[in-house]
Specification:
alpha/beta; 7 helices; 243 residues; Alpha/beta hydrolase (chains A, B); Rossmann fold; AB_hydrolase_fold (chains A, B); globular; homodimer
Chain lengths: 243, 243
């Protein structure tokens, strides 16, 4: 399946931003120049429109380091059709959090596992299309959350050579087993005071990753408070591994 | 008290290495050029001779980033007089570790607290002498272990502006309280598989630090396996805060 570009604009730092669709999935591609560049896939929690300022910031940061960047909408987010089951799981999660109760494994499984099942093949299809463009050469990195999507991609997609994973979402137990199978270099970001995140689970997950090169960067602050210097360190990680 | 330089050599990258004594305490100073430079105090577990290759490597790395670097011998290490109490505590520690028993708080207290009490004023005296040299201007950073010495220095010594602390030694309970009083920026290195280190205690200590800017970098590997890129990240931390 090929990308259909639907609009483009030149950002003031010279980055070319193009919206596209891949079948029914909307996405955005950022490139700087026409020489073939390595690619960073920008993960996010869903909702391209809402996430746009942060995604564009990360893409411009990547472009400044010589990387193309791309993202696609997640299943059930933005303009894409909602899943009734995911809606129920989200409502259950909200109830548990508001009641201050521990979040049941079954809720996390219902929320995350179908999302991973559906999203990962979509990212792979997007990768097929992106790598067929002359501006993109690979190698490819994955950056961001949903961390379970990043883990699955790292295991099943051999074209992904390195990943920056953001420990900011619930992780089903089954993903801990999958984490042991990851062998690519990992750089894990953890916000130490992330309200929506279980710190101990994030540390356990870091421990579980099977790769021989893994680094955890924990910084003070909440979910959206990743400091600028932590973004710089993640960019340096990709420069070490993708160039 | 002034430094007495006892020998000097020019390293092949142009760094001037001078051995000195400060009263009875031996030390080493590394400088590059004569323009006043900020200073990094290089902490270590004791034994300048044995630690020399690693200390010199860190000093040359620092010099390449525009920092002077200096270190002094710890009380009871190298050529300095041994303390009978510390010897007993070390023997108790060795027995506990060999027996696979949990290490009693009293052993850790006996090993570390008198060392901190004695070493910290010595580092402060060294700082007086170093800052009186024309080649050294400040600001000053502390880098390394013994982590309890770094914590105490960060609390009591206002001339230290930032610290890279290596979580690789036992930490007395009392130091957790002191950690809450640290307000300077911290960059904490943790080797995830450090045999001689309690990972959970290191994470608890990171949590306890009272400063608003703290970053934890955890890397795979044992005590001496800090990867090159982690050293680079620590250097960048000092560049952000001391320049």
């Amino acid at each position: 399946m090929a990308l259909q570009f639907t609009s483009e604009q030149r950002l003031d730092d010279g980055v070319l931003e193009r919206a596209f669709t891949l079948g029914e999935i909307p996405g955005i591609l950022w490139t700087l120049g026409s020489a073939p560049a390595p690619l960073i896939l920008l993960g996010h929690p869903g909702g391209l429109h809402q996430m746009y300022p942060r995604l564009a910031g990360r893409a411009r940061h990547s472009a400044a380091e010589g990387f193309a960047a791309a993202t696609i909408e997640l299943p059930g987010s933005g303009e894409r059709p909602r899943s009734a089951a995911a809606g129920r799981a989200r409502a259950d999660l909200r109830r548990a959090l508001e009641a201050g109760e521990p979040v049941d494994d079954a809720i996390i499984d219902a929320l995350i596992l179908p999302l991973v099942e559906k999203a990962v093949p979509e990212w792979q299809t997007a990768l097929d299309a992106l790598l067929s463009l002359p501006e993109i050469s690979g190698p490819v990195g994955y950056s961001g959350g949903v961390i379970s999507i990043g883990i699955r991609l790292a295991v099943v997609e051999p074209r992904i050579s390195a990943a920056v994973l953001f420990a900011g979402s619930f992780v089903p137990r089954a993903m801990f087993e999958e984490a042991r199978q990851v062998t690519i270099p990992l750089h894990v970001l953890l916000q130490w005071d992330d309200e929506g995140n279980d710190r101990q689970a994030a540390l356990d997950l870091f421990d579980a990753f099977g790769t021989r090169e893994k680094t955890l960067h924990a910084n003070l602050g909440g979910h959206t408070g990743v400091p600028q210097f932590a973004g710089d360190a993640a960019a340096q990680f990709f420069t070490r591994h993708l160039k």
